[in-house]
Design brief:
2 domains; four-stranded antiparallel sheet; 482 residues; alpha+beta; 10 helices; 14 strands; two-stranded antiparallel ribbon; rod-shaped
C-alpha cells in the first residue's frame, strides 16, 4: 500500500501509464475482427487511519475489464445462424433453377409442344416418312432433355456434397481451435486475471461456427465454454468431438434404390443423426436430402408417365413395309425399362428399333389401312390429357395433372422456393446487421472516444508527474533547512 506524497505519486504514475497502454491497445485494434474494447479499472486505494482521520493513499489499478455482453452475443449468433441457412439455400436453389432456364425456346415446355405437334403433323400425313423422321427427332430431343436435366441435377448434388464435406472439415478445424483456446484461457486465468485477447479469438471462432452450423456457447466456471450443435456437444473443455458426414441409405433397402442417397451428420462416435441442424449445414443438407430428390422425383414421374402413356397407345398401332398388307404390330415408342431399372429422367430414351428407323413409328390403328391416322391422332391428343401424371410427394400428398401443367407447377414451385429464400435472406440480413450493431455498441472500438480517453489519461499522467516534482521540491526545501 502506497502512503505519503511520493507513494501516491508513484501509484498514480503506474496506474495511468497502464491505462495509457490499454487505451493504445484499443486504438491499435479498432479494425481487428472480433476485438472487444477493454477498459482499465481504477479505484481509490485503502486509506490510512490517522488519529485525526483517514488519509487517502492514491489510486489502485484493479485490472482490465473486457466490454462484452453475453446476451448480445447470443442474439447475434442466432441471427447469423438463420442468415447462413437462408443465404446458402438461396444461392443453391438459384443454381438449381438455372438448370431449367424456363421460359426458353429449347426448354421442356417447348420440347413437349414440338413432340405433340409432330404427332399432329403425322396424323395429317400418315404415310409420310419425313413426318415420321420429325417425330423421331422430337422424341429423341425430349429424351435427351430429360437426360440433361437429370445429369445436371446430379452434378449440382455432387458439388453441394463436396461443399458440405469441406464445411464439415472447417467446423472440425474451428472446434479444435476453440478447445485449444479453452485450455490456454483456463491456464491464463488461473491467477484471477481475464485473458481478453484469447477470449476475443475464441468468440470470433464461435461466431463463425454459429453461421456455419448454428453453434451455441455455454460459459463454464473455469473460463472455458462448451459449444453445442443442436442437442449435442461439439466442444467440452479442451476436447472436441469430430463432426462426420455419412450416407444414410434406406433400411431395409428397397427393390429399386433411389438415385439420391440421403446424407446425415453425426458427432463423435454417435450413430444418431445430429438434430436439429442449423446454419449453412442445414441449408446444404436440405438441398441434398430434400430439394434435389424432390425435383428429380417429379422429373422421373413425368418421364415415366410420358413413356408409359405413349407406349400404351403406340403399341396398339401397326407399321407397314411399303404397301405390304397387313401391317405388323408397332410395339413401343420409348424403351420401357425393366422392373429392376425402371424408366427415369436419366434413362429415358427411344426404343432401339425406333431410334434406328423412323419407319417403325406407327400412325395407323388398322392393320389393313396404311394411311389410317388413329394412332397418330391419339398420341397427339395426349397433350390434353389432364390426368397423365400422378405424383406422390414425400409427405404422402398426391398430385395429378397433365404433362405441361405438371412441369409448369414444378418450375413454379422451384421459383417460389427461390423467392422465399431470397426474401428470408433480405430480412435476416437486416436482423443480423441490427444484432451486430447492438453488440458493437458495447464491445466495438470508437477511435474518437478512445482518443478523448487517451487525452484524459495523458493529462492525469502529466498531473502525477507534477505531483512528483512538487514532492521533490518540498523535500529539497526541507533538506535545505537542515
Amino acid at each position: 500500500m502506497a502512503s505519503g506524497l511520493f507513494g501516491i505519486a508513484r501509484t498514480a504514475l503506474l496506474a495511468h501509464q497502464t491505462s495509457l497502454q490499454v487505451v493504445s491497445h484499443n486504438v491499435a485494434n479498432a479494425e481487428t475482427p472480433g476485438y472487444s474494447r477493454q477498459r482499465p479499472m481504477l479505484s481509490a486505494n485503502t486509506p490510512v487511519r490517522m488519529p485525526y482521520g483517514n488519509i487517502g493513499t492514491g489510486v489502485a489499478f484493479n485490472g482490465i475489464e473486457r466490454q462484452r455482453d453475453t446476451l448480445l452475443d447470443q442474439s447475434f449468433r442466432s441471427a447469423a445462424s438463420l442468415l447462413g441457412e437462408s443465404t446458402t439455400r438461396r444461392d443453391l436453389l438459384s443454381q438449381v433453377e438455372g438448370i431449367f432456364g424456363e421460359p426458353a425456346d429449347a426448354g421442356m415446355a417447348a420440347s413437349l409442344d414440338q413432340f405433340w405437334s409432330s404427332f399432329s403433323d403425322l396424323a395429317t400425313s400418315p404415310g409420310s416418312l419425313s413426318a415420321r423422321a420429325v417425330v423421331q427427332q422430337s422424341g429423341r430431343q425430349l429424351s435427351q432433355l430429360f437426360n440433361d436435366y437429370d445429369a445436371r441435377l446430379t452434378q449440382t448434388r455432387e458439388q453441394v456434397t463436396s461443399r458440405l464435406d469441406a464445411l464439415v472439415s472447417q467446423v472440425n478445424q474451428f472446434a479444435e481451435q476453440v478447445a485449444e483456446l479453452n485450455g490456454r484461457i483456463i491456464t491464463a486465468e488461473a491467477t484471477g486475471t481475464v485473458a481478453s485477447d484469447l477470449r476475443d479469438q475464441r468468440d470470433l471462432l464461435i461466431d463463425d461456427l454459429s453461421r456455419m452450423a448454428g453453434a451455441r456457447a455455454e460459459p463454464q466456471r473455469d473460463g472455458s465454454v462448451s459449444v453445442l450443435l443442436g442437442n449435442s456437444t461439439l466442444v467440452d473443455g479442451t476436447s472436441a468431438r469430430p463432426l462426420r458426414l455419412q450416407q444414410d441409405p434406406p433400411v431395409p433397402p428397397p427393390a429399386v434404390m433411389p438415385s439420391d442417397i440421403p446424407v446425415r451428420l453425426t458427432l463423435g462416435n454417435s450413430v444418431d443423426r445430429l438434430y436439429p441442424l442449423a446454419g449453412e449445414l442445414k441449408g446444404l443438407v436440405g438441398v441434398i436430402n430434400t430439394d434435389v430428390p424432390s425435383l428429380r422425383g417429379r422429373l422421373d414421374a413425368m418421364a415415366s408417365s410420358i413413356v408409359s402413356t405413349v407406349n400404351a397407345t403406340h403399341s396398339t398401332g401397326f407399321v407397314f413395309s411399303g404397301n405390304t398388307i397387313p401391317g405388323t404390330a408397332a410395339g413401343n415408342f420409348f424403351d420401357p425399362g425393366t422392373v429392376g431399372d425402371p424408366v427415369r429422367a436419366g434413362t429415358m430414351k427411344l426404343l432401339a428399333a425406333v431410334e434406328q428407323n423412323a419407319a417403325n413409328i406407327s400412325a395407323s390403328g388398322d392393320a389393313n389401312a396404311p394411311f389410317d391416322n388413329r394412332i397418330a391422332t391419339g398420341l397427339a391428343a395426349l397433350r390434353n390429357n389432364t390426368t397423365a401424371v400422378t405424383f406422390t410427394g414425400a409427405g404422402g400428398e398426391t398430385e395429378t395433372a397433365g404433362f405441361g401443367t405438371f412441369f409448369r407447377t414444378t418450375v413454379t414451385r422451384l421459383g417460389l422456393d427461390v423467392r422465399g429464400a431470397t426474401d428470408d435472406t433480405s430480412v435476416r440480413t437486416i436482423l443480423s446487421e441490427q444484432a451486430d450493431a447492438r453488440r458493437q455498441s458495447v464491445s466495438g472500438v470508437s477511435t474518437d472516444e478512445e482518443l478523448i480517453q487517451l487525452m484524459r489519461v495523458q493529462q492525469s499522467y502529466v498531473a502525477a508527474t507534477k505531483l512528483v516534482k512538487t514532492a521533490d521540491e518540498m523535500l529539497q526545501t526541507l533538506l535545505s533547512l537542515v
